[in-house]
Design a protein that fits this description.
Structural class: alpha+beta
Oligomer: single chain
CATH class of the largest domain: Alpha Beta
CATH architecture of the largest domain: 3-Layer(aba) Sandwich
Low-confidence stretches: none
Distance between the termini: 34 Å
Largest sheet: 6 strands, mixed
């Protein structure tokens, strides 16, 4: 069993604290993604799990055993880095089996494990090639194969797809998901790309400034963000947001625009409350292109700034509340900059955040 238990974990460099007493439980065979902007502490946390960074405070348990002071080789983990870190003079087979050779495993056992990993990753035809003869995606698969052969309890991935182009990233996301389904090990995966986190993970941990902002399933963090930061970080395009003041049954924005106060928040905010109103692009549609009239749907005439055609849909950027808001147009028609179109806001899907604290007012 390879549960990870992180209790009040702290990292300091001298007098500067960069990870502030985080707590996280990761179940056996769970795929957890740590995501956040640069400098949020996600890679530092991963390196503490790996044993590559010392722990300044708190405890780290793997499989019920405290490993704070164990060297990396004794933690039964494997790590895949952003750089492939392959030996250029070795073949794929030699690269994959090198750690087992160093550990003085019998050659028959090395061959068995390497061949099994190659079959899982579809590398059988490449085993005698050297890294220079491989594509970026193939090199990353070799790096994953080198991790698999050690039969670790925990896989650690540190932004493994950052060096790949967009097409290869999509392909490798699929490969990693297939790998987890076959190997059934615990995975901790660090990325700054929320799309990777959403598509791969069973659970996402969003970090900010050395703290955990929210942990939940992809569906939970997308639909029920705990803070304004999470709402803006998860989702592409990001959530539309603007500050407003509660005036009676309306929200008054700084430029004079107004919207009805969503019904589910009427008992939670008082007159004059300062809030941040948020609505995802999926919940704003040009009339006739996604929503029909009904409870919670409010229509406004907005001026189009630009459009981004994407084939089966078009992103429409329109002026509202003193800024550009993004709406999705399904079954798109041509729309010109400067054109005024009727936009429908699904206020039943709206979010309100406390303007001072950034915390969701829905919880």
């Amino acid at each position: 069993m390879a549960q990870l238990s992180i209790k009040n974990l702290v990292k300091r460099y001298g007098s500067i604290e960069v990870v502030h007493g985080i707590n996280l439980e990761i179940a056996d065979k769970e795929f957890v993604a740590l995501v956040g902007p640069s400098g949020c502490g996600k890679s530092t946390t991963l390196r503490m799990i790996a044993g590559l960074e010392s722990i300044s405070g708190g405890t780290l348990e793997i499989g019920g055993k405290v490993v704070n002071d164990l060297p990396p080789r004794d933690r039964n983990i494997s790590m895949v880095f952003q750089s492939y870190a392959l030996y250029p003079h070795m073949s794929v087979r030699e690269n994959m089996g090198f750690s087992l050779k160093i550990a003085k495993q019998p050659q028959a056992e090395i061959d068995r494990r390497v061949n099994e990993a190659a079959a899982v990753l579809g590398l059988e035809a490449l085993m005698d090639r050297r890294p220079a003869q491989l594509s970026g995606g193939q090199r990353q698969r070799v790096a994953m194969g080198r991790a698999i052969v050690r039969n670790p309890e925990v896989f650690l991935f540190d932004e493994p797809l950052s060096n790949l182009d967009a097409k290869l990233r999509t392909q490798m996301r699929t490969e990693i998901k297939k790998l987890h389904a076959k190997v059934q090990s615990t995975v901790v995966y660090v990325t700054h790309d929320q799309v990777e986190a959403m598509t791969l993970a069973d659970r996402i941990v969003i970090m900010r400034d050395g703290h955990i902002e929210q942990a939940g399933t992809p569906d939970e963090v997308f639909k029920c963000p705990a803070t304004q930061f999470v709402a803006g970080f998860i989702g592409s395009p990001p959530m539309n947001m603007a500050e407003a003041t509660v005036k009676g049954d309306e929200l008054l924005f700084a430029n004079g625009d107004r919207l009805p106060l969503p019904a589910r928040f009427k008992a939670r905010v008082g007159e004059g409350a300062k809030v941040t109103f948020g609505l995802r692009p999926d919940d704003i549609f040009p009339k006739g292109h996604g929503l029909s009239t009904g409870d919670g749907v409010h229509e406004k005439e907005l001026r189009v700034v630009i459009t981004e055609p994407l084939g089966n849909e078009t992103l429409v950027f329109a002026e509202f509340a003193g800024r550009e808001w993004v709406a999705r147009m399904l079954n798109p028609r041509p729309v010109q900059p400067g054109e005024s179109i009727a936009m429908q806001f699904d206020l039943a899907q709206a979010h309100l955040f406390d303007a001072a604290t950034g915390k969701s007012l829905a919880v």
